[in-house]
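User: Can you recover a sequence for this backbone? Please restate the input before giving your answer.

Assistant: Of course. Working from this structure:
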């Protein structure tokens, strides 16, 4: 077992685009944009935003949904990264404020199974979506569906070095809590870190992170042998 634990965002981090936004653009009634504005202005939390937006989809079938998901691309270097993580016994889990159905299907299409996922739940029945938020946290300032800072705190132990990987707004509370020892950031999250003087390592794809981890593991092995 390695002493490293990695928490990783999904949308925009593992996938190239935000899956839910792409989906809403294609299938939702225009109201979803007004709701998006309310969320961006801080009038509502992402939990409320997500459940309202999923109500903007008039009718949906599992077939249509899977067809949409088959067009979603992931970072080319993510599978290699995962191999590396497994070979080295590193704990890895996905922390996403998106939906389990989306994440599981996208991973499966890429031959990826068996990853621990903390996310919101989505149920499709009778052409309508139902949402469920098992990882919400009323104490978190972000009012997210999945409170990332809460999960990281819960699963942090002094024996583990924690890595966090993310790209956007849903990762702010995780970084703000300063629980992770290393933060890999791109996009809006990297800007946020720079602006708020939070330590972060910039990355453009998962090959950067694999390389960093390779060097890190060599370094800590060297230190153990001294
Ligand atoms: Mg993201
Ligand atoms: Zn939080």
């Amino acid at each position: 077992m390695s002493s490293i634990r990695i928490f990783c965002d999904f949308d925009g981090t593992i996938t190239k685009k935000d899956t839910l936004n792409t989906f809403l653009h294609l299938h939702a009634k225009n109201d979803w944009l007004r709701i998006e504005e309310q969320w961006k202005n801080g009038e509502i939390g992402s939990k409320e935003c997500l459940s309202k937006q999923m109500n903007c989809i008039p009718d949906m079938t599992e077939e249509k949904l899977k067809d949409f998901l088959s067009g979603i691309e992931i970072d080319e270097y993510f599978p290699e990264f995962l191999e590396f993580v497994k070979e080295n016994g590193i704990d890895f889990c996905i922390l996403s404020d998106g939906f389990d159905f989306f994440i599981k299907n996208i991973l499966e299409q890429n031959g990826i199974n068996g990853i621990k996922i903390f996310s919101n739940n989505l149920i499709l029945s009778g052409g309508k979506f139902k949402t469920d938020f098992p990882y919400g946290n009323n104490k978190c300032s972000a009012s997210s569906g999945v409170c990332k800072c809460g999960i990281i705190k819960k699963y942090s132990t002094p024996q583990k070095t924690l890595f966090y990987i993310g790209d956007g707004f849903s990762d702010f509370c995780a970084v703000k809590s300063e629980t992770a020892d290393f933060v890999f950031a791109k996009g809006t999250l990297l800007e946020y870190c720079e602006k708020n003087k939070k330590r972060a390592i910039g990355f453009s794809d998962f090959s950067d992170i694999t390389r960093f981890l390779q060097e890190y593991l060599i370094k800590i092995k060297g230190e153990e042998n001294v």
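That completes the design. Residues 4-17+74-225 form a domain with the Rossmann fold fold (CATH 3.40.50.1000).
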